[in-house]
Amino acid sequence: MYQVIIIEDDPMVASINKQYVELTPSFRVVNIFKSGIEALEYLQDNDVDLIILDYYTPLMNGSEFIDQLHAMGIAPSIIMVTSASDTDIVLQLLSRGVIDYLVKPFEYSRFKAALDKYSQMKEYVSQAKSNMKQGEIDKLLIRQESTAAAAANLTKGLNETTLGLIRAFLKENRDDAYSSEQIAEQIHLSRITIRRYMNYMVETGELISTIDYQTGGRPSIRYRYVKD
Q1: Of the residues 81, 117, 139, 179, which has the maximum number of CB atoms within 10 A of its CB?
Q2: What is the per-residue pLDDT across 113-124, written as a single tens digit (0 to 9) for each?
Q3: Side-chain-side CA neighbours of residue 125 (13 Å)
Q4: Is 111 helix (H, G, I), strand (E, B) or coil?
């Protein structure tokens, strides 16, 4: 389980970021801070794997926070989530070890791509030998690029946030199969809308569909989450 902290002074944005992080089961938000100063105090005594950082926070900006972090001898991975898109700022932060940079407003699929890239990198490195060969390094870089590219391929007309909610519900109940009507009731959307998402998730291999003939009437299609 990857331990995550969020540094964001807007409570609503911080809450959304927390929901996005925890839609991915291997990540857990352990704390939220309104400023880098508060986060640095916490990090003096607590280890984290990943920081979701807004550039514009009270008392110090993102660059100043990273400087202080490195001065403490701490270097967790950082995903920047901010409205700061000035070229100099972006290049400066990427040169300081920021592993991904999301410009507000962004959609869930892009956020998830950043988390996937991080977790795949950690998993790959943990399995690598003490000295990586050039081929292994190249594979790591390719993995990072392909994960980000996959986020851009979501079918037009589907909403990433809605897809994330449906996915989270089905993952949490992966031992059971549900009809579109049952899922619609849980997510509070129309059956027609849910069916569009079910078709997409079946095509991408996240779900399997079966036909239930024991309904006492018209057969019902049921869906179950199967992707690891």
Answers
A1: 81
A2: 889 888 877 877
A3: 8
A4: helix
| Cβ atoms 184, 137 nearer than 8 A | no
Are 198 and 170 part of one and the same domain? yes
Do 144 and 195 sit in the same domain of this protein?
no
d(CA 216, CA 96): 63
Q: What amino acid is encoded at 169 in this protein?
A: F
Residue type, 165: L
Predicted local confidence at residue 157, as pLDDT: 66
pTM over 0.85: no
- Domain containing residue 81: CATH number: 3.40.50.2300
Q: Dihedral of CA 78/79/83/85: which sign?
A: positive
Q: Give the position of tokens 């619609």.
A: 184
**CA dist list (Å): 30 to 47, 62, 70:** 10, 20, 21
pLDDT in tens, 11-54: 988 998 999 898 888 999 999 999 999 999 999 999 999 999 99
Q: Are 99 and 77 in contact (CB under 8 A)?
A: yes
Contact (Cβ atoms closer than 8 angstroms) between residue 1 and residue 26: yes
Domain span at residue 96 reads 2-130+140-152
